[in-house]
Write a structure and sequence with these properties.
single chain; 314 residues; two-stranded parallel sheet; globular; 13 helices; seven-stranded parallel beta sheet; alpha/beta
């Protein structure tokens, strides 16, 4: 049986490369969609040899990429334009999350792509004042409007991040609590990557055309996370506020006069601190992907992967 071809949009990113790894572990053929300027080194080291060059803001390039032969059986979209991406490129790349995704949906529909797996955001339909959250919901609605078969994986807050600040803090016995007193739903990115691969390769067509919350088994406060790290590391870890109180006093000024990516991050933080990052529907995730990962197991795997603990002898 020939390997199924899956096109990964945003393949060179941190999450994108994790998705590529998960697909390769399932023996899929990965077609990485990258920009002309993207660094392919990491993808090539994973064994990717099939690349298509396209830009979400260039509809013609998307059409060419998605009609490449042999045709892909699924597209996984993990690209992001807002937040840190804008800071690195000295501009407002939010067009990627708006016009860019609309272009991608149009190209997928025109190319007859059997399914699109969208990496979305937990409770994005309830965050109209958070730009890159609400824009994911707009894309979900556009997929449905265009009748493009899709599955939207609404991910909780990442336990690990592209610029990971948790590991160095935990090494010093501190878990940085970004929302003291507030429980949030979290996910470890390898789990999200695994779900994306399963959604692209294994789920039946009857599971499509819906949004699925993707998170651990329970929402977690900072102290609960600190307890999980304490057990995983065998030494005390305590939760401490990630930001001093003074920061929140000046945030309204930054939100008013700061650049777009900072305004977006501030809006997301304010929404999170009000308890917005909590799933109200876990049964769909369990039905499609099995038992939800626990906080304790996710933290233990994170600690092993980050080299915070020595691997156990086999």
């Amino acid at each position: 049986m020939e390997a199924k071809i899956v096109t990964v949009v945003g393949a060179s990113g941190t999450l994108g490369s994790a998705i590529v790894r998960a697909l390769l572990e399932k023996r899929a053929h990965v077609r990485a969609m990258v920009r002309a300027t993207s660094d392919r080194t990491k993808l090539e080291s994973l064994g990717v040899t099939d690349f298509v060059v396209a830009d979400l803001n260039n509809p013609a390039s998307l059409q060419q990429a998605l009609t490449a032969e042999p045709r892909a059986e699924a597209v996984i979209a993990s690209a992001a334009g807002f937040s840190a991406h804008s800071a690195r490129t000295k501009g407002d790349n939010s067009r990627t999350d708006t016009e860019g995704y609309r272009n991608l949906v149009d190209a997928a529909k025109n190319a007859g792509v059997p399914r699109v797996v969208l990496i979305s955001i937990l409770e994005c339909d309830k965050a109209p004042k958070v730009p890159h959250f609400s824009q994911k919901f707009v894309t979900e609605k556009y997929l449905a409007e265009k009748r493009q078969p899709y599955l939207a994986l609404r991910a909780g807050a990442f336990l690990d991040r592209a610029q990971d600040v948790v590991a160095p803090k935990v090494r010093n016995g501190v878990f940085p609590d970004i929302a003291p007193g507030v429980a949030i739903d979290m996910i470890y990115s390898p789990d999200l990557a695994r779900y994306a691969a399963e959604a692209a390769l294994d789920l039946p067509a009857s599971a499509l055309n819906q949004s699925i919350d993707v998170c651990c088994n329970v929402p977690a406060t900072g102290p609960l996370m600190a307890e999980a790290f304490t057990r995983a590391l065998g030494r005390p870890v305590v939760a401490k506020p990630a930001f001093p109180p003074l920061i929140f006093a000046i945030l309204p000024l930054v939100a008013r006069f700061g650049p777009p990516h900072l305004r977006d991050q501030i809006a997301a933080l304010a929404w999170l601190r009000k308890g917005g990052y909590v799933s109200h529907e876990r049964q769909k995730q369990k039905a499609l992907f099995g038992e939800l990962p626990t906080i304790e197991d996710s933290v233990a795997r994170y600690c092993r992967d980050k080299g915070l603990v020595k691997p156990t002898a086999s």
